[in-house]
Amino acid sequence: MPTLTPVTEEGRIYEFCILYPSDLTQKEESDLIKEIESIIEEVGGKQVAKDSWGKRGLAYTIGGHTEGNFIVYHYEVDPSKVRSVETALSITPKVLRHMIVKPPKGYEVVKYSEKFEMWLKEREKQEERKVREKEEALAKKVADRAKRTVKRTEVKKQEEKPAAQPTDKKKLSEELEKLISEDTLNL
Amino acid sequence: MKPNQKNERRGDPRKKKCAFCEKEVAYIDYKDYPTMKPYIDYFGNIFKRYYSGVCLKHQKMLRTAVERARFMGMMAYRK
C-alpha cells in the first residue's frame, strides 16, 4: 500500500508500533486492540493505516515471552497530545513494548508483514538453489574423478602393452628361428 | 609480499561504495529487517563503516533503525 501520507492542518502523522504477547485468547486480544485504538482516538487521532504482523519470534525474551504479535498503526494526531498517549500506552497492561515514531517527509506506508513473508520465501528459494549448486558441484567432481581414473587405467594399460610387445617379439623371433631350424631339419 | 598481492586477496576497502547512496535511500525503516540484516554480524553488532563501505549519513540512519528494532525485540542486542 504505497500511499504518500498527507498532513492536514494541525495534525501530524505518527507511527505507533505495539508489541503484545501472542498467547492471549481471542477475546483478550480484541479487547486489547480496542483499548489501544481508543487511547489514540480519545485524543482525536484519525487512523491512516493499520498493519498487524501476526505471530513473530522475538530476538530475546521480553517479560518471559519468546513470541509476540506486532501491530503498526499510522495515526494523524495533534503533536501536543502525543505525550499523553505515550503515558497511557506505558500504563496499559499486556503491552510489552510500544514505540511512537515520527516518520520523515515523503514517507510511504509499506506493509512489512507481507514484505517479510516474501523475503522469507525468497531466502528459502536461495537456500534451495545453494543446496542444488552444491550437489551439482559434487556430482561434477565425482564424474571428473571417475574420468580421471579411467584415463589413468588406460594410460597404464598402454604403458604395459609396449613393455609386453618387445618380449613377445623376442619370443616370437626365437620361436620362429626355432621353427625355421626345425622346419629345415624336417625338410 | 608485494603490496598488490594484499589487494588482490580481499579488495581495497576504500574503493567500496555506499549501497544506500546508489539506491538514493532517504530513510531506513526499523521494521525492514531484510535491508538491515547484511550490516549486522553474528553477534548482533553493526559493522564498522570501514568494512561495509556505508557513508556517514546512512550509517547514522542505520544505527537509529537498528536501535529501534532492538528495542522492539525484532533484532538481538547480543547473540
Supply the key terms.
heterodimer, A: 187 residues, alpha+beta, Alpha-Beta Plaits, four-stranded antiparallel sheet, 3 helices, 4 strands, 55% helix, rod-shaped, B: 79 residues, mainly alpha, 30s Ribosomal Protein S18, 5 helices, 0% strand, globular
Summarize the structure in words:
The complex is a heterodimer of chains A (187) and B (79). Chain A is an alpha+beta fold. Chain A has helices at residues 26-42, 82-91, 112-186, and strands spanning 12-21, 46-62, 65-77, 97-101. Chain A has a domain at 12-110: Alpha-Beta Plaits. In chain A, a hairpin with a 2-residue loop joins strand 2 and strand 3. The radius of gyration of chain A is 41 Å and the shape is rod-shaped. The mean pLDDT of chain A is 86. Helix content of chain B is 47%, strand content 0%. Chain B is built from 5 helices and no strands. The N and C termini of chain B lie far apart (38 Å). By secondary structure, chain B is an all-alpha fold. The chains are: A alpha+beta (187), B mainly alpha (79). Chains A and B meet through strand 2, strand 3, strand 4 and helix 3 of A and helix 5 of B.
Secondary structure layout:
The complex is a heterodimer of chains A (187) and B (79).
Chain A: E1 12-21, H1 26-42, E2 46-62, E3 65-77, H2 82-91, E4 97-101, H3 112-186
Antiparallel strand pairs in A: 1-3, 1-4, 2-3
Chain B: H1 3-10, H2 19-23, H3 33-36, H4 49-52, H5 56-71
- Work out the helix count of chain B: 5
- CATH fold title of chain B: 30s Ribosomal Protein S18
Largest sheet of chain A: 4 strands, antiparallel
The CATH superfamily of chain B is known as Ribosomal protein S18
CATH homology-level superfamily of the domain at 12-110 in chain A:
Ribosomal protein S6/Translation elongation factor EF1B
What is the class of the domain at 12-110 in chain A in the CATH system?
Answer: Alpha Beta
The count of DSSP E runs of length 2 or more, i.e. the number of strands of chain B, is 0
